[in-house]
Amino acid sequence: MKVLLADEKHLRHAELLLAAIPSLDVAGSDDPDELRALAAERPIWLGSPERVVELLQAGFAPHWVQSSWAGITPLLAAGLPRNYRLTRAVGIFGQVMAEYMLTYILAHERQLLSRLASQVERQWDARMPSSLAGRRVLVVGAGDIGQSVARFLAPFGVELRGIAREPRALEPFSQVLGMDALAEQAAWADYLINLLPDTPATRDVYDAALFARMQPEALFINAGRGVAVVDADLVASLQAGHLAGAVIDVCREEPLPPAHPFWTAPRLLLTGHSSAPTLPELLVGLFLDNLARFQAGEPLRGEVEFQRGY
């Protein structure tokens, strides 16, 4: 079995793959010409969408591609072939994303950044914080990652609700409602966490009307996709005091241009698309599981329906 590694971590991936299956024929490169030469004879690819796109545009035709990203938007661009099987990275981001959410939710609850500002100004800050117990958390995008985030938050005694494409029962949420309930539930939440994928139905979801429904004490966290947020509306809401703050990990354009208003918006923290790094050990574990399924003709974990977009 010949496998192409089209990712910046290809050397580490090769090491892990060969440790698991010494007979596996794996190869990768950081040189575009060499990568194209390797792609010509390898039907199975493990790699990042940005590098896979370049190979698809060059006319190479894989049988199956395992993306190293949870998001596969670049591979859905018009004009790219769709006559291959595509799987996205699933089941490997839950804990790191939950750790990210806990970091900034606890920092907000404990007023960490304002206390740092007070220290810089040599002002004694003796305000008493609240507790997460009883706080209302809305996870928008209650899929694999969203459910894992909720499990890590549950021991803190928060009330958890989710938003998904369709309502359903899902632990540990008390309720999971459909997208049509988002505005109503946004008004309920103390913390609104966006984890929605990038699809036509999830773009510009967070606009002025929705931010106006949120509580002025609420924190908005976006670690889903930047296109879900109308940037100007978020900035205006923060400037008007309609939100306690925002933590933004993903933006419409990355890196964020120097003139973008997010840089100077009040109470907005940028975290540079760092919420859920891909850990090589977990990615290779997923790939090996899917490789066995692929060889056995079984369903693949995280297989993408191109028409649906995820």
From TrEMBL:
Gene3D superfamilies, alphabetically?
A: NAD(P)-binding Rossmann-like Domain
- Signal peptide region: none
Q: Tell me the superkingdom of the source.
A: Bacteria
| InterPro entries named in the record | D-isomer_DH_NAD-bd, NAD(P)-bd_dom_sf
D-isomer specific 2-hydroxyacid dehydrogenase NAD-binding domain boundaries: 103-274
Q: What name does this protein carry?
A: 2-hydroxyacid dehydrogenase
Pfam families (alphabetical) = 2-Hacid_dh_C
Q: Which classification does the entry list for the species?
A: Bacteria, Pseudomonadati, Pseudomonadota, Gammaproteobacteria, Pseudomonadales
> Sorted alphabetically, which keywords does the UniProt record give?
NAD, Oxidoreductase
Q: Which CDD domains match?
A: 2-Hacid_dh_1
